[in-house]
Amino acid sequence: MNLNLNNKYALVCGSTAGIGKATAIALASEGVQVTLIARNEAKLKTVLTELPQQRKHNYIVADFSNPTELKQKVLNYINEKHGFHILVNNTGGPKGGPVFSAEIEEFESAFTQHLKCNHVLAQAVVPFMKSEGFGRIINVISTSVKQPLDGLGVSNTIRGAVANWSKTLANELGQFGITVNNVLPGATGTERLTEIIKNKSAKTGSSEDEAANAMKNAVPAKRFAKPEELADAITFLASERAAYINGINLPVDGGRTKSL
Question: Are both 122 and 208 inside the same structural domain?
Answer without folding.
Answer: no
